[in-house]
Amino acid sequence: MKNAIKITSLILFIFFTLTSCNQKSKLEINETDPLPSWNEVESKKEIVAYVNDVTNTESENFIPIKERIATFDNDGNLWSEQPAYFQLFFAIDRVKAMAIDHPEWKDQQPFKAVLEDDMEELKKQGEHGLIQLVMATHAGNTTEEFKAYVKDWIATTKHPTKNVSYDKLVYQPMLELLQYLRANDFKTYIVSGGGVDFMRAFVTEIYGIPEEQILGSRIKTKFEYNNGNPKIVRVAELDFIDDKDGKPLNIQKIIGKKPVFSSGNSDGDLQMMQWTASNKYKSFMLYVHHTDSIREWAYDRNSHIGKLDKGLDQANKDGWTVIDMENDWKVIYPFELIKN
Amino acid sequence: MKNAIKITSLILFIFFTLTSCNQKSKLEINETDPLPSWNEVESKKEIVAYVNDVTNTESENFIPIKERIATFDNDGNLWSEQPAYFQLFFAIDRVKAMAIDHPEWKDQQPFKAVLEDDMEELKKQGEHGLIQLVMATHAGNTTEEFKAYVKDWIATTKHPTKNVSYDKLVYQPMLELLQYLRANDFKTYIVSGGGVDFMRAFVTEIYGIPEEQILGSRIKTKFEYNNGNPKIVRVAELDFIDDKDGKPLNIQKIIGKKPVFSSGNSDGDLQMMQWTASNKYKSFMLYVHHTDSIREWAYDRNSHIGKLDKGLDQANKDGWTVIDMENDWKVIYPFELIKN
To answer: Looking at this predicted complex, what is its ipTM?
Structure first.
């Protein structure tokens, strides 16, 4: 039973285990319009009204600066997550890069399927195969080595259908929202099911969020003194799954404060939203609803990745703010700004 | 074997599991002397020379602000830890407060020993007894309830020999050092073997360190939706021991950056020091050596609590800075300032 939970968790970890991007869009806050890539829609009005209210010292809803904790999911919330979590593409590409040192993989599943680009066979390998992929590619190296692998991958690899590097697939309107909140003294955090060390390797510059404000899933590590050149080695064993219940738990463990603002896009973010909604200060819960099949992807209640079902029900019931991507956002990605 | 390690770890957790104080000494940095409670000794000169060097943009040792991570042990480093870690006194006092709801404890060890103030018998109960005490007093409540217990305890309880509340037993020279580093754009963290939620309940105001910059040991937690009034419940099972190897591991997990400045007082801090010493930026390792048997306590190589043996050897060998408390500090506690 315990193992079953672990396996299920690992799968969630893999599926929910993706991350970010590398577009240095140094936005200046536009004083008259802090969210220029948003249409004049309800979601935008609600965000601006909330920020104006809770930062107004005259308001009964004023929130002291040190309590202005804002937590953002990453996959499907700050960058895209289709046709699979981008971290899975990283694992696949790592297998290919590592294959030269692993001749045995040519005849060993799930590696054989990856090396032969046989996605049907890879699917057949199921949960167990995915675990093997993640552990083979994410563990057995030092924190420094792993960081270098991710940095190299993000700099050299393109998304299979969008044909731009993965870090270009961040959401321009969300970059503006992060900037807007920080300009109003909110401390912005990422709280993602994706791997924390995967994200830390490259998202800080894109989102303006320092390493210490990135929370995610992680594998175990061990410290080796190594004759005066100490290293931290990544071990092929799960340490924490930062998804569902794990999100409020990790927020409490690491931040130690309840957020006043949370943003997500799937049922995996629901407990974080519920926790935020229970803040004694006025709080704001924001769901990104993927409705744009042309510019991005359209999916919700029945999606394998980024399923939004219970979360949408609770958002409707409790009056949380829901972004309709197709209708609410003028552009999705920063590179559309350049085209325009 | 695994259990033996867990038990040993728990004991370390208990012994190393203490914390802080409540003296609001709002120090202004004295421009001519940033460390006024320090004598003009080598340790002080080395600290000031280091800070001047790494904050000087003209220096080859200049450190960018975002990399100025400074990590401090708590027990025996920022406040006293004798005759036992203060968190153990909290556990003992909690048992007494909870006894009314636990009539069975009158006949049940180790609770019986605590209720009868029979410290000899409590010692005989050994590791297993200590584990029972910690779990009975630290788990089975919500994060909010636990915080309230700690806050109440620190406000109403006095140290057994110093006869002041525990939060008065912080080190004035270390408060000045924390302030001095922050004035030079270092981000100050606590990285303690003590319980993170115990510390967060009251140390923020004393040290000027927000909740999210406090790392420590912790027990497991679970999230309960509770019909729209979600709570996080503390579970009687160890989650992480933030001591020895655990310190660099927790720093990497939570901060994701290697410190440039670390301060501790025992062998439990040695791995954090070693990790810091391996920074590519110029780093500073500072040991507090308890040499003052009159104003505080004198102990090092053979001490049961706060043993400093291997750490002292490595400090001497590698030229790390060692504070001689008796000689280097004009005052130990803030209340001595008022007397003077």
So the answer is: 0.90
